[in-house]
Amino acid sequence: MIPDLKMKLSVIIPCHNEQNNVGFLIQALTKTLNETEYNFELIFVDDGSSDDTVNEIKFNAGIYPNVFYIELSKNFGKDNALKAGISMATGSAVITMDADMQHPPGMIIKMLQFWEEGYDIVYTYRENANPHAKLYQKVTSRLFYKGINMLSDIKLEDGTSDFRLMDERVIKDLKLIDEHELFLRGIIKWAGFKQAGIPYTPSKRHTGEVSYSFAKLVKLAIGSIMAFSARPLYIMTGVGLTVSLMTIFYIPYVLISFAEGYAVNGWASIIATIAFFGGLQLMVLSIIGVYVGKIFMQSKARPNYLIRSTNLVNVNNDLIRV
User: Fold this and answer.
1) C-alpha 274: how far from chain center
2) Which residues form the Glycosyltransferase 2-like domain (predicted)?
């Protein structure tokens, strides 16, 4: 693809309590993108921040004519914030990245090179474990990717991030996807197209702390796996059949016991068996319940996000930058 001065890049940055990073990121992105032959817009999506992030974004939007903001009505989650930005993007290519500076802006130049060579999606993945992450974050991240690759129908490189470039053809199709629990890393991998992965080493956060707790990571892992596969149901079906077959071997012992005249005793073993099967049944029911719950939430057809304010106005499906 040959660069065209009329072509524009849209950079989507979801923000949650990033007030001290916004100005620094704008300067870094402006410096990087000014080295390219493209026009560009920066769209910040405030995902229900409790600090002064949205006012910081609005302040910079008043200074930079190509900085725009979307303020969501509450915290809807990172993927929904990304979807809000993507739905408003008008660039020939869309770049998504975090606001904490762990995604090096300089890598955008390399992404553009792949895009110009004809790739529709250029994504990044951590080459090594994040040197700036805490131990539990490294462990949970590794387990997450191992689990999703084993239990779902998609394959993600260890450390696949939300730092990516997507062609407008991909964005057009993404705008049509309407799922209750979004997992964009999985959806984009599932979408196909011509993709290229670039390894990177995360930079240190400019300021602030990671807002994802262990509980949120577990919820994300379970939701992501079940969003892309019914394999957990098949696995539990296999476990149930295996356990049922194993009980057949217990029948000869019972018959021989009665034939020989001694009772089948063992209160503890009976209780343990009941507890085991009870726990297995509850686990199977809980997995089924999660799938049913996802169907229930999807059937409500509620929007993924609500916008409280923005300086992007949608008139007759045409976006106007104000």
Assistant:
1) 39
2) 10-174
pLDDT at 165: 93
Q: Report CA-CA distances (Å) from 241 to 136, 244, 250, 287, 308.
A: 35, 5, 15, 16, 52
Distance CA 165, CA 173 (A): 15
Model confidence at 316, in pLDDT bands (50, 70, 90)?
very low
**Nearest partner of 173 among 222, 120, 108, judged by Cα:** 120
Does residue 130 register a pLDDT over 60?
no
Residues 6+ apart with CB under 8 A from 189: 154, 155, 156, 160, 195
CATH number 3.90.550.10 is the correct assignment for the domain at 8-213+303-321: yes
Nearest to 298 by CA among 179, 182, 174: 179
Cα–Cα dist 58/27, whole Å: 15
Per-residue burial over 37-66, b if 16 or more Cβ lie within 10 Å, else e, is ebebbbbbbbbbbeeebbebbbebbeeeeb
End-to-end Cα spacing for the chain: 30
Indicate if the pLDDT at residue 292 is higher than 70.
yes
Domain ranges of the chain: 8-213+303-321, 231-300
